Structure of Transcriptional regulator, GntR family:
Amino acid sequence: MLDNTNKLPLYVQLVNTLLEQIQNDMSPNDKLPTEKEICEEYSVSRTTVRLTMNELENRGYIYRIQGKGSFVSSIKKNTINSFFDLDFRAHYEGMNSEELTSELIFFKKEAAQLSLRQKMGLQQEHNIIKIQVLRKLLDIPVALETIILKNQYFNFINEAKLKEEGLDKLINTIDIPLKIVEEKYKARRLNPDEIDLLQSKDEAALVVTKSLYNTNNELIIISERKILTSKLSYQNFIQKEN
């Protein structure tokens, strides 16, 4: 159900609700309920529903046929461009993303070191949010992810919310327009703590570092993923614009 006390706009909440249904319960070309039916089911205005449907269409989740309604797109992804997507499941090559689970290792709000302050344009008194999550496939550790967030944009995130809703669900509620993404790849050996968390042998991991910038060219998110490619196939995709 939608929450009127939530700081997120109702249409953003409705986008997330319908997207969850599309991802989990619907198939390509399935017809969605009419705008009137959605209004009645979620007790929202027609304007809210239209904003929601426009957003889903613009992001490639649905398509419309005049006089017939709205239908699920053939691309059932969390985004049509996974480079901008922080949801780890968008990069999973398997058929069922529900096979992937996450375990919160730590959540911190702390002062950034000088090099990071300069990189993210932080004042000395500004904090960052640092989160580490262990990714599991069928309960087997496959990746260790560390995310750094610019606190001034993400101060609504706290440890209790992370434990209750999960990192990916919270990330999908972030409604900040992004302009640029930089992604770097390298292979490196895991340190002893990482080996212990990933229950791995002394092997090299694929390290994917993603830096995301908003429309003001501010670096606001850094994600570093250490992936055991012997256990998980990691993918990126992008849809060419017409």
About this structure: Residues 26 and 106 are 34 Å apart (CA to CA).
